[in-house]
Amino acid sequence: MSLRFALLGLLSDQSMSGYDLTKRFEQSMGNVWPARHSQIYPELNKLNKEGLIEIVAEGPRGRKEYRATEDGRAAVHHWLTEIPTEWSIRSEPMLRSFFLWMLSPEEARTYLRDYRTWFQQRLDGYNEIKQYWTPETEGEKASRVVLEAGVYQAEAAIAWANWALEQYGDTRDSDA
Amino acid sequence: MSLRFALLGLLSDQSMSGYDLTKRFEQSMGNVWPARHSQIYPELNKLNKEGLIEIVAEGPRGRKEYRATEDGRAAVHHWLTEIPTEWSIRSEPMLRSFFLWMLSPEEARTYLRDYRTWFQQRLDGYNEIKQYWTPETEGEKASRVVLEAGVYQAEAAIAWANWALEQYGDTRDSDA
DNA sequence: AAGGACATGTAAAGTGTTACATGATTGT
DNA sequence: ACAATCATGTAACACTTTACATGTCCTT
Prior knowledge:
The structure is a homodimer of 176-residue chains. With 176 residues, chain A is mainly alpha-helical. Chain A has helices spanning 2-13, 18-26, 37-49, 70-82, 92-97, 105-132, 138-167, and strands at 16-17, 53-58, 64-68. In chain A, strands 1-3-2 form a three-stranded antiparallel sheet. In chain A, α2 packs across α3. The model of chain A has no long low-confidence stretch (mean pLDDT 96). At the A-B interface, α1, α4, α5, α6 and α7 of A face α1, α4, α5, α6 and α7 of B. Chain B binds a DNA duplex (28 and 28 nucleotides) through α2 and α3.
């Protein structure tokens, strides 16, 4: 169900095509809710048939630009306020960490350094965006708040990786 | 693919039945990779047929206790060292946060307070476990390291929620 | 004129959830 | 005896990924 509300929410803020939405998922949105174009396009057609979104413009190459209807925005509001949040998350990096005991200490440290590096790059990317991006729409202002969550999470992930590296016998601070 | 390695990893540390594994997922493992018994039992039968796990004991009510074979442990090692990690995660709470601009400030604050409360309860639970649980097997020692990741992340989530509450006009520190 | 980006779609396979289904054992 | 827990399984449906499929427009 979440994908449809993700699309409705994005189309409540700005009108966009499926192609634009796909890029959005590849960039920011996919960090918390991945989706491919093969899932997005059929869902848009469903939402359109249900009257939750409407076509506001057509462009070259069959491009269709959608925006959420009043019903669509109401559906997002209902979801946010009445439908209980699914709190549990799915994280393969953390799943893998449960099994670090099956690796040699050196292999485990390699994993933890990769983990740290990945989040460090995220963090660098987020800070870059913070520096050069000025949110304009209401949706972008909220995205800016979520971006900050990414910063907090990445910093926590890096701090944990450093702590875990000590547990796995890392004394140096290589690749920090 | 991840579920099979989660099961193989758990059964590399301790022999367990599908029922035991299901409880494991309801407790610790499900925090990072949820799974129900209806997914676990068929996967165990597949792993058994493939020779990656074997039955070590049978008990009352058709209980079957499994453990990973040498091949099974090798499969986990291969996964951890050779198969690239899927870094992106799936988090409905963060997805919802993208759309807080569609709520009234008071509704947004309610969501953020619920968010903070949920992570605070997680954190309390984690600290409780840290206090009374002494890891014994190698797998449990690694789980202890992952538990610490939960602590870091919950603390970061709470810190972010407090920051976000300020953005959404919260001055008091209610429900902290 | 050619390559890359734009643009949309479907089909098949794989993964995950909910609901259905059954029965044995243990503790009170 | 009854209730709770233990214990396993399947079926239908929903969601997600990968692969297939097609064609247009823009820039150099």
